[in-house]
User: What shape does this take?
Amino acid sequence: MCLSLEHVEESRKPRVVVVDDQPQILELLRYMLLYSGNDVFSFSTATAALEAVERNQPDIILMDINMPEMSGFQLCEKIKQKPGLKETPVIFLSGMNNPEDKVHGFRAGAVDYITKPFQLDEVQARVSTHIRLARAEAQLRHQNEQLEQTVLLRTTELRMDIEERERVEARLAVQIEATQEALNYTIYALARAAESNDEDTGNHILRVGEFSGLIAEQIGLDDKLVQAVRVQSILHDVGKIHTHPDIFKKTGPLTDDEFARMKEHTFAGTMIIGNNEKLTIGRSIALTHHEKWDGSGYPYGLAGEQIPVEGRVTAIADVYDALRSPRPYKAAFDHATTYGIITEGDGRTIPGHFDPTVLRAFREKSAQFEETYERLKG
Ligand SMILES: [Fe+2]
Assistant: This one.
């Protein structure tokens, strides 16, 4: 049976192996070490000692250097190559007293070197010291291994926690996306329902959404706001469900009373959309998309940055699409004509109606406006 030093108790008698080809010295050491309370195993040849220590691991090995068939240096090196014996302390006992032999001994793996003739007390003191040291080191190694196992176990548990959290987050992301899609669909359905009262405007609401998104992105709004503007600007005219259909169908100019009723679609829109925090951008757009930068718009006559940015963005999108589309009171304009009216004015629409930053973004994104109109003209 091969005992591991890590698992022996300090109270067990130290197991000492002695190897020397001189019988008198072997006997002397055996008696002295037995007398000091050790279990002693003595061998006169290196080969016999090697076989024995492989079978039964000692706490320490004392060995002579000059021995027939195998020197102490060779025996020490062979012992140190055995995995179970690598940490077993070896002490050389030799009559050779020059420094080179001592260095050779330490290089072979010894922990100590005692020269002959020796004092028995000194030998016993060094043997005890090295056994205590080796046991302390073995204990330390054992604790380190336990610590490494604990760290490994905890790391595995943490990795499993992280993986579980990632799975939960992935499920949540899917649910959030599904909820957002459901909200977008509801917004679209609401906008479509409101359109049934208006003249046939085709994909007007979808195009205004796309145009507004283009401008919002171009002026550098953050991604979340760009997305909200793109989706919720389609609700800009949702209040028109309360406007009498005859007003939309009228080919001539509106009377003051008719225009006043038309303006009410802004307030009606805010009432329909309500106060849900997910629709605050849509509500703001419904209320302010007819305000003008120069203060000449409605319903409040707000000017400049008094108008929320989402209202300023949607205003230009709505005007562009209205100019491009046929209405009972006007024919459709092509892109170039519409571009000219918005950027240079035609008497009714003037550049001063628009936020200059938004107007610049329109000029920069003009080609995409044309492409989007063609794609969604339905
Ligand atoms: Fe409107």
